[in-house]
Amino acid sequence: MNSRYDLIVVGAGMLGLAHAYHAAKRGLSVLVVEGGNRACGASVQNFGMLAKIAQAPGTGLDRAVRTEECWHDLAAEAGIELNSCGCLFVATADEEMDVLRAFMETETALNQDLRLLDPGGLMACAPAVHTDTLIGGLWSPAAVKVDQRSAMEKLAAWLSRQHRIAFLFSTRVQAIDAPNVETARGGFHADRIVVCAGDDFETLFPEAFANSGVRRCHLRMLRTVPQPQDWHLGPFVLGGLSMARYHSFQQCAGIDELKQYLADRYPACLEHGIHVIACQEIDGSVTIGDSHHHGEPVSSEQSDTVDQLILDYLAERLTLADARIAERWTGHYASLADTDCLILEPQAGVRLVTMTNGQGMTHGFAVAEETIELLL
Predict the structure, then answer these.
(1) Cis status, amide bond into 230, omega within 30 of 0
(2) Boundaries of CATH 3.50.50.60 in the chain?
(3) CA-CA distances (angstroms) from residue 376 to 23, 29, 90, 230, 372?
């Protein structure tokens, strides 16, 4: 293995691999150093949702569109399945439906293929939803799901095979003094270094992270046992809690009334930062989540409470064929208020790049492309 490269990337998660991809496309020699034997953080603990519909017009939407283009460019070659399953926002109250109607008049909606649905239309999109309690919804057929549990490994293998990117797994980076990178397996050198370490703020350049105000967000998530073969969820399913959270809905008429309705109807969900998404995986299981707790994770006792709040909210909107929960976990990612991505320059030629909105799958390729262009 060489000791000198044009670019060294620390971290083999979504952002790290995206930087390696764009650098290799520009002809740079690249080394990726990953502390684990594979990516195991936020890049694999999510829903695999390319959340274009969640973006407000501007940088966020532009990055989401560009990132989706990149996924489509490489997915087939890398053996990564992209499922155009669609996205369904369901409404149980007039306040939710009012916001969905207003959303249809926004720039985001006018540039996408979206449809308002009555209860019968909801059933056609997702037969598992409760048409007796739902009054309507919003359907986006273009929403894409990535198989988040395997995508990072497949992407890394393809980058190694197709673009001759070098990888060092199970190797901790101990120190960086550009252009030198010291690891547990020796020293390496590069004029450009990008650190994509997710929410690890303590190992490399802790002062820079501390001064930025970034903090860790913990999320409770669940996954069911595989559902029967004749049961299919279809699209991502979301409700009013997600409308109140996503940037794309914030300028809609009626959003304040919706938030007040949610505060009255679901105060415990708001206390725990819950907005509920359900999606079906390749093996038939259903991933459900999530909550948002900043600073310390919830206790085990609180976790049970939060999990039940999530499940109860979902049960009001759809019925699982088999509701047994096979997995529960607390995910984590970097978080910084009113910021989608944190980019720091602690040394000349070094960038610390961290997604701070939990949407690395949606924005990662575009953010990495921008960073590589600046470094060059």
Answers:
(1) no
(2) 4-47+149-213+339-375
(3) 9, 13, 45, 52, 6
Residue intervals of the chain classified under CATH 3.30.9.10 are: 87-142+215-335
The pair phi, psi for residue 90, each rounded to 5°, is -110, 150
Mean pLDDT, rounded, of the chain = 94
- d(CA 82, CA 151) in angstroms, rounded, equals 10
What superfamily would CATH give domain 87-142+215-335?
A: D-Amino Acid Oxidase, subunit A, domain 2 (3.30.9.10)
* Pairing assessment for the beta strands 341-344 and 166-168 based on DSSP bridges: unpaired
Residue 260 CA to residue 101 CA, distance in Å, equals 18
Question: What number is the average pLDDT over the span 351-367?
Answer: 95
Pairing mode of beta strands 30-33, 87-91: unpaired
Contact in structure between 365 and 60 (CB atoms under 8 Å):
no
Model confidence pTM above 0.85: yes
Ordered DSSP codes for 91-121: ESSHHHHHHHHHHTTSHHHHTS--EEE-HHH
Q: Is the peptide bond before 57 cis (omega within 30 degrees of 0)?
A: no
Helix extents (H) in the chain? 14-25, 59-78, 94-103, 107-110, 119-125, 148-163, 206-212, 240-245, 255-265, 267-271, 300-315, 360-375
Q: What is the mean pLDDT of residues 176-182?
A: 97
- The top-level CATH class assigned to 4-47+149-213+339-375 is alpha beta
Distance (Å, whole) CA 176 – CA 185: 14
